[in-house]
Amino acid sequence: MSSFACVIHPVSPKQDVARKYPLLAKILPTPLVHFFSRFWPPVYLSRITGVRSEATGKEIEGWLLACPLTAEQMMRSPHQTAYKKIIQTGGLAQELGADIMGLLAFTSVIGDGGVTVAQNLNIPVTTGRSLTIAAAVEGLEQAAQHQNIQPQTATVAIVGATGSIGLACAKLLAPTVAELLLVGRSDSHLAGAEAQIRESGARRVRSSTNIEAIREADMVLSTTNATRPIILPEHLKHGAAVCDVALPPDVSPRVTQERDDVLVIDGGVMDVPGEVDFHFNFGLAPGRAYACMAETMVLALEGRRESYSLGKQIQIERVREIAKLARKHGFRLNDIR
Ligand SMILES: NC(=O)c1ccc[n+]([C@@H]2O[C@H](COP(=O)([O-])OP(=O)(O)OC[C@H]3O[C@@H](n4cnc5c(N)ncnc54)[C@H](OP(=O)(O)O)[C@@H]3O)[C@@H](O)[C@H]2O)c1
Questions:
Q1: How far is the CA of 221 from the centre of ligand 1 (A)?
Q2: Hey, which end of the chain has fewer CB within 10 Å, N or C?
Q3: What integer is the mean pLDDT of 25-45?
């Protein structure tokens, strides 16, 4: 039987640590959770069973493993420290016999996006970015449809447009929307992104380093590596459609509490085919996985033992291919907040 391993890590320190160590999470203040995460060894969380292709009937099994570093700790530590922890977790995946390993959230964001990790392991590694990008764009389009927004007449903001996922999403959306508004932190990074997106057939592109600029956007796709929410209720246009791909989320929970007119979709979440049981609550409803985990499962179902999405550069052809394979095996987008 083909097998896979998914590496997760605490994105919300208290909440996620409590899923495995409720007592520790209760007694340790958040700064100490961050501190101890540096010294904690990789954690075996559970066996994943029941992933079955709708197309071929093939069933695969996997393991859920945790790299203990919190998102903040990954951003603060030298890359080598984070690589070491992720590679140690990969060693556990190898010992268990996984054919392929997928990286979630900041385990793929930091440094070179999985390249060093893959070089130090004997199994292929994927960041899952290709399927995440496909799911993000589809999620945004679905949210727009719910809100009766026509993309061809809409202004679409990409928050984190200078990043790996944001830039690829902007390129995919460029030919189909009226205007793209790129939001980032650095003018020089934004200028580089703008030039690439113009070449992808965009009609109008502009950029801003001010998050408040998204108040002009009908559709918003957010995909930054910020460790706290950056999109607040007052930033959004009336009736906007929002797709949040970031982990931890970019959209404040206050948006769903205070803005009935706005629709927020968790862009990177998919329904898994078969009767999947993760035997561990990592925060999603039963039967659902993050798109990056789904990419790892799709590759295992296809028997493709390759480091499919590695590094920060995205090949748009791979995004299209993995989306097609995911559909074939029965992975579907879901989850409207
Ligand atoms: N749902 C899933 O399955 C899934 C899978 C993979 C990744 N993700 C998540 O997707 C997100 C992006 O991943 P990535 O690989 O594209 O990361 P990345 O390449 O590091 O890009 C993140 C970008 O965010 C920008 N940024 C940071 N703070 C910002 C702010 N306050 N305002 C505007 N832009 C800001 C950074 O801009 P500058 O550095 O240019 O300033 C950077 O270019 C992460 O949260 C990750 O956890 C989700």
A1: 11
A2: N
A3: 89
Amino acid 298 reads V
Nearest to 274 by CA among 258, 263, 286, 283: 286
- Report how far residue 37's alpha carbon sits from residue 16's, in angstroms, rounded to the nearest whole number: 12
Query: Domains in the chain, ordered, with CATH?
Result: 3-129+269-311 (3.40.50), 131-266 (3.40.50.720)
Give residue 55's identity as a one-letter amino acid code: A
- Give dist(CA 285, CA 263) in Å, integer: 19
Nearest to 97 by CA among 3, 162, 226: 3
Q: What is the pLDDT, as a whole number, of residue 229?
A: 96
Residue type, 336: I
Cβ atoms of 112 and 275 closer than 8 Å: no
Average pLDDT (6-26) is 89
Residue whose CA is closest, atom 1 of ligand 1? 268
Tokens of 247: 């982990």
User: Is this prediction's pTM over 0.90?
Assistant: yes
Pair of tokens at residue 54: 């709708």
Cis omega before residue 248 (within 30°)? yes
Beta bridge partners of residue 59, listed in sequence order: 52
Query: How far, in Å, CA of 214 to CA of 236, rounded?
Result: 6
CA distance 159 to 169: 11
d(CA 307, CA 114): 9
How far are the Cα atoms of 27, 40, 91 from residue 282, in angstroms, in the given order?
21, 18, 21
pLDDT at 336: 62
Which of 131, 159, 165, 272 is the best mutation target for the ligand 1 pocket, counting ligand atoms within 8 Å of the beta carbon and taking the most?
165
Q: What is the CA radius of gyration of the chain?
A: 19
Q: Please calculate the CA angle 183-227-82 and round it to the nearest 5 degrees.
A: 115
Q: Is the pLDDT of residue 335 over 70?
A: no
Contact between 273 and 288 (Cβ < 8 Å): no
On whether the CB atoms of residues 221 and 136 are closer than 8 A, the answer is yes
Amino acid present at 323 = A
Ligand 1 neighbours (beta carbon < 6 A) = 105-106, 108-109, 128-129, 132, 159-160, 162-166, 183-186, 189, 223-226, 230, 245-247, 268, 290-292, 312
